Amino acid sequence: MMRILLDDEKVWREGYKRLPRECLKIPSLHMMGHAKNGKAWEPLATHYHKTLEIVVMLNGSQEYFVSGTPYSLYGGNLFITYPNEEHGNGDRPQNACEFIWFQLDLTPREDFLGLSGTLAKQMHQWVSQCRQRVMEVEPSDLKLIRRAWDGLSKEQESARLLGYSALLHFLALYFHIDPERDDTAGRSLSPDILRSLQFMQEHLTESVSIDEIAEECAISPSRFKAKFKEQMGITPLYYMNSLKIDRAKELLQDSDQSVIQIAFTLDFASSNYFSAVFKKFTGYTPAEYRRLKCHILEQDTDRP
Prior knowledge:
This protein is α+β, with helices and mostly antiparallel strands. 45% of the residues lie in helices and 20% in strands. A hairpin with a 2-residue loop joins strand 2 (11-13) and strand 3 (16-20). Helix 3 (139-152) runs antiparallel to helix 4 (157-175), helix 6 (210-216) packs across helix 7 (221-232) and helix 8 (236-254) packs across helix 11. It starts with a strand and ends with a helix.
């Protein structure tokens, strides 16, 4: 039976903080939280909510499945799941990343999100009628949602008021219904950053420095790193390592190469460094990952 997550209890620990509606005290705001992990952590089991859930990726990357459809997210992505939609990330550990998420109860009410009159009705209409799964958030607006969390997680009324206004501002920016807005548009990448992605993919098994990638894109290394982070939400090194780890997963599952061979195939300085990076991204060592995948394949083979 599919599990429903209520998220109605306060959690406050290093790397994971969540406040329920009783703490937030804003009508229709069911919960809000902030997660920040520097390494892979436990998988998010498939579940659903009775609320609309909004995840704003601040840094790193994450992969979610909604009713079996995968979505790869990076820093600067806003991701929406609707009431009663099954979602999670399967049996995969969650990636090292940082995000803020919150849930809205879409039950119509006259004081939706603490507003009144036509403002409450308008905001409810914007949010409840939105059907876009992924949006791109401007870097300046990532600061806005940070201010919302920072303020609403405080006890001082002045801080909470600033956080509340930042949340309303953020929702108005990204959920207002604009007939001229192209909701099918994807991530907007400049030609030089697109070239860098292609270049990294083409030279996955080679020793390529940031300076060389920047030279290929005809911009300075410092400008390249800043521009890449601004448009992709992650650093060039993080992206390059994520490509290598994805390739390593394929080799561990589909080839007989040893861990040491795979490490040097993908140009890691040592097998120990490769194992450390692999575990940071997946939560497993390469050997553990290979055993796990072999076990899953054996189970699938044994099924009638």
